[in-house]
Design goal:
Elements lengths: L1 E2 L26 E4 L7 H18 L29 H25 L12 E9 L21 E8 L4 E5 L6 E5 L5 E5 L4 E3 L8 E9 L7 H6 L2 E3 L3
Antiparallel strand pairs: 1-2, 2-7, 3-9, 3-10, 4-7, 4-9, 5-6, 5-8
C-alpha cells in the first residue's frame, strides 16, 4: 500500500444520515500495486477481442462514464461483468482480481486495527468490465464516483492485459498534483473510487486492453439496476 499526501479531502462536508462506505474520506490518497501475474497474453487478447465484437453487437452504447470513448466497449460496461465471462484462459486473471481486492482490504484492516477500525468483507459487490483502445485513442480524465458522493466511495482498480509504453495518471481532487504508474500486463492497481485519472494516448499498433472494476462494501451502495441486470455481483458468488 503506497500512501500519498492528503490534499484537501478533509475540507469536504461529511454526509449526514446517509449510507457511507467503510473508507469514504477517512483514508488519504493511496494506491495498491499487485504482483505481476504471468498469463498467456496472446490467447487472452485473442479471446477478449472476439468478445469485444460480441458485446458491441449485442448491447447499445449507454454512456462512456466520462472517458471520451463513445460507442465503444467501454460505453457498454453496464451490461456484463468480466468476472462472469467463462473461459479457462480468464480464470487466473479473475482470481487475481478477487485475491488482490481482499488483500488490499486486509491491509487496511491491519493498519487500522490499532484504531479499532475493521472493514467487513461479508457484503462486497463488484462491477467489472474491460476496455480496448486502439492507436491514437486514450481514456479521458474521469472519476468512477463524483466528489459529492466521495464518502460513499470504496475501491476502484484496473488490471492491464496488454499495453506498450503507456501510463495511467492520477490526480489530486484539486488537480494540482499528479502522479503516474506504468501499465504493466498482469499487474493490478487499486485506488480510491473518487480519484480522477486518465491514460496517455495509445501509439502502438497493438490494442491496449485493460480490465476495470468498482467495488462496493455494502449492497446499498451499488446501483440496484446493475444488481437486477446481473452485471453487479457479489464478490463471493
Amino acid at each position: 500500500m503506497t500512501k500519498v499526501t492528503d490534499l484537501g479531502l478533509n475540507k469536504l462536508k461529511p454526509l449526514e444520515n446517509k449510507i457511507k462506505s467503510s473508507l469514504g474520506l477517512e483514508i488519504p490518497y493511496w494506491y495498491w500495486k499487485s504482483e505481476v501475474l504471468n498469463f498467456n497474453k496472446e490467447k487472452v487478447v485473442s479471446f477478449l477481442l472476439k468478445k469485444e465484437k460480441e458485446i458491441i453487437n449485442k448491447y447499445p452504447s449507454l454512456g462512456d462514464g466520462g472517458t471520451g470513448l463513445a460507442d465503444s466497449l467501454t460505453s457498454r460496461y453496464q451490461f456484463y461483468n468480466f468476472l462472469k465471462l467463462e473461459s479457462p484462459m480468464l480464470e487466473g486473471l479473475q482470481k487475481h482480481i478477487i485475491k488482490n481486492i481482499k488483500m488490499c482490504i486486509n491491509k487496511f484492516n491491519i493498519e487500522g486495527s490499532r484504531e479499532g477500525k475493521h472493514i467487513s468483507t461479508n457484503d462486497l459487490w463488484i462491477i467489472c468490465w474491460f476496455n480496448v483502445l486502439r492507436k491514437n485513442q486514450k481514456i479521458g480524465k474521469h472519476t468512477h464516483r463524483p466528489l459529492e458522493e466521495a464518502e460513499k466511495s470504496f475501491l476502484s482498480g484496473h488490471l492491464t492485459i496488454q499495453a506498450e509504453s503507456t501510463q495511467t495518471y492520477y490526480l489530486s481532487i484539486c488537480e494540482k498534483y499528479r502522479w503516474s504508474i506504468e501499465n504493466i500486463p498482469g499487474q493490478i492497481i487499486i485506488f480510491p473510487t473518487y480519484m480522477p485519472h486518465y491514460t496517455d494516448e495509445t501509439l502502438s499498433k497493438s490494442s491496449r486492453i485493460s480490465v476495470a472494476f468498482d467495488v462496493y462494501d455494502k449492497r446499498e451502495l451499488a446501483d440496484p439496476a446493475f444488481i437486477a441486470r446481473g452485471n453487479c455481483i457479489s464478490l463471493d458468488t
